[in-house]
Amino acid sequence: MRFLSETSSDGVCEQLFLLDDIPGALWTPEGAACTRPLIVLGHGGGQHKKAPDVLDLARRCVTECGFAVVAVDVPGHGDRPVDEDYHRIATENQARVEAGADPAPLIAAFQALVARRTVPEWRTVLDAVQRLDHVGAGPVGYWGVSLGCGLGVPFVAAEPRIGAAVLGLGGALASGAHAALITVPVLFLVQWDDERVPRGQGLALFDAFASADKTLHANPGKHGDMPAFERGSALRFFSRHLA
Amino acid sequence: MRFLSETSSDGVCEQLFLLDDIPGALWTPEGAACTRPLIVLGHGGGQHKKAPDVLDLARRCVTECGFAVVAVDVPGHGDRPVDEDYHRIATENQARVEAGADPAPLIAAFQALVARRTVPEWRTVLDAVQRLDHVGAGPVGYWGVSLGCGLGVPFVAAEPRIGAAVLGLGGALASGAHAALITVPVLFLVQWDDERVPRGQGLALFDAFASADKTLHANPGKHGDMPAFERGSALRFFSRHLA
């Protein structure tokens, strides 16, 4: 793990790093020196580790809860090179959707393909970050919606260190099988008029989680319209389960 | 409006009152002297104005938000006499359900009948309470689930002073038509395994609210199993919209 930069503002220390060839960002309280809860943030499709909603949530986790937060670029996103295979498949999928194909099974297949790489990558990141003195091996949560849900559900299912997860904007077709392996507390976010994930698919994914403690929040609007106050819900959820 | 008693504990003043023949309770911050937001609480079936969940929510609204809260007994509940008509209908309905009838249309018809009385009663209560110096004509919210939703939806639809409402454990069959008249912000609570309100009925009621700003929270469990943390969600919702 190689640190590229370290900056601080308003009580939040941001360290950019490379782990093997994975570019990431770690946020911690300024002056932090001991073990604390850690949130792994998975960004959305076409976004990156410092997309505005990721950054806002990361900073709030640090300032309001004292947590550490880590996010890395998904292959083909942010500071990572274009992946020729993914790029070709994504371009083909877009053409099919424009020609009238149902996007849900295409998204599901694509996310399953990418998850085969990101699940082991994110586990390696978790190993490395938890070895740092100012993070340590404390409780771990995961937050990710849209692509961050498609990649997050198999990650949470595979990784026993994750103790609570905020997921959403995903469907049962893509993630139902892995969701049935998840038993930790889940906050699941649905956009009621999601044009990419049919409502029934989203509700069926909520149904599929094996967690006894799970809560669904639904709000009107399309895939990209999730209200900012749901970031506050995520903070309270993590505080309840990890702090 | 005749006050029967006044007691204070832990910063909360509780006044029991009679308005005509309606017994009610008013909670305000100890020493309150000016206008503040007011929450009208509607209790559940078989409960009363001081049922434990009503009382807990009322006290939290006062201590955490500085609001006033009022609740009155629904006819046939709490300190009100048994209403022969309601009692007969409820007994007949129970026998029908035990004989295998679908409870949803029976509940819908019964709540519509009772609402014809409670809507004008609650509007009178609101008039009276807002004339008190320590309540005043500030913003008003409504909270009610189960029977408190069945009676609350027509109340919120009819009463322009209500600026935000927490409703839940109700279905579209009973309340859909009135819900379509509601445009204020709504937080709607669903129990995912509700044995009294079919899931599709609950989701359809959420769908029916005309409010641009509405949020659904769903949790696993039966009709009576709503988690206590949803009271915290209600407080934050009212703070966001009324404070």
UniProtKB/TrEMBL annotation, chains A, B:
GO molecular function: hydrolase activity
Transmembrane intervals: none
The keyword Hydrolase is assigned to this record: yes
UniProt keyword annotations, A-Z: Hydrolase
Taxonomic superkingdom: Bacteria
PANTHER family in the record: DIENELACTONE HYDROLASE DOMAIN-CONTAINING PROTEIN-RELATED (PTHR22946), POLYKETIDE TRANSFERASE AF380 (PTHR22946:SF9)
Assigned protein family: Belongs to the AB hydrolase superfamily.
Protein known as: Alpha/beta hydrolase
